[in-house]
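Q: What does the assembly look like in three dimensions?
Context provided by user:
Components: three
Sequences:
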Amino acid sequence: MNDAFGNALSFRYELLLPEIILAITAALVIGADAFRSELRLGRRILPWLSVLGLLVAGGVSLLWIDESSDFQLLLTIDNFTTFFRVLFIATAVFVILGSHEYVEKHIGHIGEFYALILLSTVGAIYMAAARELLTAYVSIEILSFSLYVAVSLARNDRRSGEAALKYALLGGVASAMLLYGLSLLYGVGGSTQYAEIGAALAGGAPGMTLPLLLGLALIIAGLGFKASAVPFHMYTPDVYEGAPLPITAYIAATSKAAVLALFLRWFSGPLLPAIDDWQWMIVGLSLASMALGNLIALQQHNIKRLLAYSSIGQVGFMLMAIATISEVSASALLLHIGGYLITNLAVFTAVIALYNRTGTEEISGFRGLAQTNPYLALVITAGLFSLAGMPMLAGFLTKFILFQSASQGGYLWLVTFAVMMSVLSLYYYLKVIREMYLHQPDGDPSRWRLTPTGYLATGVLSLGMVVVGVYAAPLYTMADRASRVLF
Amino acid sequence: MIPIENFLLLAAVLFAIGFYGVLARRSAILILISVELMLAGAAINFVTFATYLDPVGFSGAVFALFVITVAAAEVGLALGIVLRIFRERQTVNVDEVDSLKW
Amino acid sequence: MFDRLPLPSQFDRIIVQGGIAATLFGVPVLVVLLALLIGNRIEAPELVFWLDATVVLLGALGAVFLRNLVHAALALIATLIGVAGIFLLLANEFLALVQILVYGGGVVILLIFGLMLTNAQDDPVVTDGSQKPFAFGIAAILGGLFVAAVIDANWGAQTLSVVPFRDFGARLFRDFLVPVILVAVLLDIALTGAFVNARRSSDEDAMVPTGQDAEARS
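A: Here is the predicted structure of the complete assembly.
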């Protein structure tokens, strides 16, 4: 310790390599954007540079399969981290691939857009990797901050700034609540290390009942906000509507999955001994989210708002697995998150492609899509059916395994309710599908085609949706291996 | 010696006052100020626990440093957005910023 | 915009009003505390704590209750400097220093600039009357719960330990290296956010085309 540098030089920096690559790519993207005219670069270079960086980072992160290495007790690189690294990087790749045409038309600051996606991926990954509260907190803030900014990037759209303001102010309040909860947890556990907090809580934390309970409530409130679970969802529809479409897709995918990864890390590890204190809160959140999300989605006629409420309902389903936390439900949740991300991105990339053509977010804009672009109509139909949980698609199988694990955990009544809500959700998805197939197109009835990258993104994602739905074994094995390191 | 409860009570009251401000104030900048109060409460909590309960590791003190940093960054970010809103609509009152239904 | 800045005379008025308020609240508190100190009911550090806590809480109340926005921001300064004092009482000089530098020197100035640039002087009172009792109720319940939790709990240790500068730095850069790196990313994002929003976009002043870039965008 006397040597000022000896210690710092012996750290295993290579464990941080994928995120370092992402951050450097982000800096390169901003630089390339700023000096575009001097360097005579086309605008197309930015998405390709981002995708290249993401792919390299994703490849590098595969180096640590089946390892469990620590960086200074701050992060752990194990199968769980690798699972989410690959998942988040893939999400970012598909969001960028599916949206570069949209971005050129509707985003004011293109370089910043791609850089923010890259940097927020760093935050999301470290939310899954952290094994210490401070690292987790700063990662949460990285993800949140980049989303506040990304939401505000739409050009010539007053809703964008308004959504960003609401998101930033309410997000700041949620962060403050989370932070106060963390401070109480630190007071009870005496450390910011997950392992030591877990040990302290396992010892019963005598004389600390009320601070622990309040701390847990505040933490769940703060994280519930970030995952947009009812009753902390107020901002969700507005932010989803005001944000540029690719960012809406990104929030619905990465932001939610990252919070659930954090939930898994916390509630399967350090907070598991206090399960009696928090289980009922999570069950309540889950119940309220399922009910409210799906019921309000019935009345929406803007596709972004519809998907916002549907995603609130989806969070309700996912929280069931947290409430009944066990090795089985953790792996079921990971599988479901994988299936949900693929499905959600398929729907969103298709909606983005449609928006590029029609320029409207109303569901009436889907009219007659089956005639003008049967391929896209098929992708959207498959995606929405998968979200509703129809057989042969990813959504059915992953949801089935999720529900099964939750009912094994002793919450049969909750699962019954979830099944009912799932059936209900079919109704509003069918509303969209009916517009596409049973109505004549409003405007130009001629056929149109997607861009090549549009075909690539939607094609790969719909293929993934079907493959997971029919043959989930590979993803299930990965989820299983990832969840095994948690307990 | 000052009892630990004194500091914790101060933090709790500060947080509650900030929370009241968030709910009652309507100007975006005043809501930001209220959030700062809440964060100050959390920071006091962290430092208190660090000095009283975690004297060897004092992770809480390091945490408080990051809280201060993040809070400052948040003010900068949010004020940027507020200025943009003001440019677009000549108001920073969150009740009047309502082209999206809440 | 200079006509909107408060004139020196207004500042004088603020100072006088603030001085009167501080005297009205401060003197009784000081008297009570001194009486307690002389009667050996409390020790000197605790006296300082209560004085400081008074500053913090009065500032906080001012920040959420004062109707003039600039006054509220000034009250926030009192709170934040008071919090620095609390950090000193907790034997952490470094944090006290950072608190004053970052808040006193940066954040509050930023907030006041924000208020000035958004016509704070022209804004009418902006507190929603119907929502106030509801807000007060919720905050009171929350505060009550926290206070109950603090009093109810048995915190054990009652010794206060000093954190030296050197140990703090070593801990920060050796044991918390990842958060330090991550916070750099975070500040970068905040900078980007402030820049893209506060800057006028090229669409807004489209009257002034800026060469190649404007052509590319159209």
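Follow-up: The radius of gyration of chain C is 23 Å.
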